[in-house]
Specification:
single chain; 416 residues; alpha+beta; 2 domains; two-stranded antiparallel sheet; 9% strand; disordered C terminus
Length: 416
């Protein structure tokens, strides 16, 4: 156990891993040190599990342990959340299969991203991964027809600026369908994997053609090839500013289930050409420090020297480590600012920083929900740098996942 983490944080870190349900490092703590186990704040454990989106695996570990010495009130809270989680997973799984069936009948090839597909491929049971919406990738040529199919089947499209045209650097359309007995279902229909402005060298066309057929619970899907999936998940962790344990768990499970299929020479060469080698290296580095190495970690990984200077990785090691990731230290915007250090070329870091402070007209319109020809554009453009500075400074005293202020960071320590 890591002495720098509280007992609640150690429980989350250990129980977030879903493939090892038979091993419980904390039962011995419950039996040999009951005075410490009895002081566990189970409300905080539940809050951390939900905020990191790893609740299903945490719940199953506790269920396997027989809820030993856990108060009945806390057990009831966990079981209520489990019921809601199962219901949502079933609804979204069935809905994904229905949508893919509609697309298939119209001759539209579609690749599910994350969600149901990852749960079926890399988790012992689909119920051990949560998902809140559906992400589907189709070809740009099919995006309009796919959107029409969704609307004909009961979905509504979110409002788009520019007369309904695509906003700059946006590669998806958002649809939703209200449910009579609960929250709406959201579908992100992607006509590109990533933002082309941020990742212009990613070979999306190649990834599309390398997609493979897979079977999950008797259902046929198309999936990114193993090596491409690893790079895609790496970028998603980077884009989310290293905020959520669930994203690291996805990558961890991929290494366990598909590690023998990975062509690491191809991975590092593609990452280098796509200028995401620093991202890949630092994600693997962080993953190893979170959960330890797996047999699938390549010897080549330890020999690769990333392009970044040692001073940059040294800074990030202290900002994005397992303690700050689990506790949610630093606001998301501040984390994203530090993540700019991971660009393979320092010139790209400078360009990206300037783009954040001085974005394009379309980006300003999308960010502040104004029309392109509105005179308010000049006001927002002038205020934008000040607002960005405020967000960065605010990140020093808020969590990466919410805006509760300094008390959110100090709360766990005030209770000790």
């Amino acid at each position: 156990m890591n002495p720098r983490l509280t007992t609640e944080e150690q429980i989350i870190l250990q129980y977030a891993v879903p493939h090892n349900l038979d091993k419980d490092p904390f039962l011995s703590l419950a039996r040999k040190a009951p005075e410490r186990w009895n002081k566990v704040n189970w409300d905080q454990v539940l809050e951390l599990a939900l905020s990191h989106d790893v609740f299903p695996a945490v719940y199953q570990h506790l269920e396997k342990s027989g809820w030993e010495q856990i108060p009945d009130e806390s057990v009831a809270k966990f079981r209520r959340q489990w019921g809601q989680h199962l219901a949502r997973n079933i609804i979204l799984s069935d809905e994904l299969n229905r949508i893919l069936g509609l697309f298939d009948r119209e001759g539209i090839k579609a690749i599910p991203l994350k969600g149901v597909l990852l749960a079926g491929l890399f988790y012992p049971e689909i119920s051990l991964r949560s998902f809140s919406d559906l992400d589907i990738w189709v070809r740009a040529a099919d995006i309009s027809r796919a959107g029409q199919i969704l609307q004909q089947s009961g979905y509504r499209e979110w409002f788009h600026l520019n007369g309904g045209g695509p906003i700059e650097n946006v590669c998806d359309l958002l649809f939703y369908r209200p449910l009579p007995s609960g929250p709406r279902i959201s579908v992100e229909l992607h006509h590109g994997l990533l933002k082309t402005r941020d990742y212009p060298a990613i070979p999306e066309e190649k990834w599309w053609h390398q997609a493979q057929e897979v079977w999950v619970s008797g259902q046929h899907y198309f999936s990114l090839a193993p090596a491409d999936m690893l790079m895609y998940l790496t970028i998603k962790i980077h884009d989310s500013a290293y905020c959520y344990l669930k994203q690291f768990i996805d990558l961890h499970q991929l290494l366990i289930f598909w590690g023998h299929k990975l062509d690491w020479e191809y991975i590092f060469q593609t990452a280098q050409k796509a200028r995401i080698l620093n991202n890949l290296f630092f994600v693997l580095f962080t993953l190893e420090h979170l959960f330890g190495p797996t047999d699938s970690f390549p010897a080549l990984y330890r020999q690769v020297k990333p392009p970044m200077g040692s001073w940059r990785i040294h800074i990030l090691e202290h900002i994005l480590n397992r303690q700050t990731i689990i506790r949610g230290r630093y606001g998301r915007d501040l984390r994203k600012g530090f993540c700019l250090l991971l660009n393979d070329r320092l010139a790209d870091s400078i360009t990206s920083t300037l783009r954040v402070f001085f974005p394009s007209t379309r980006a300003i319109c999308a960010r502040y929900l104004i029309m392109p020809h509105s005179k308010r554009f000049y006001l927002y453009y002038g205020l934008n740098p000040l607002l960005i500075i405020y967000w960065l400074l605010r990140g020093l005293v808020v969590k990466s996942r919410d805006g509760d202020g300094l008390g959110a960071l100090l709360g766990p320590w005030n209770q000790k």
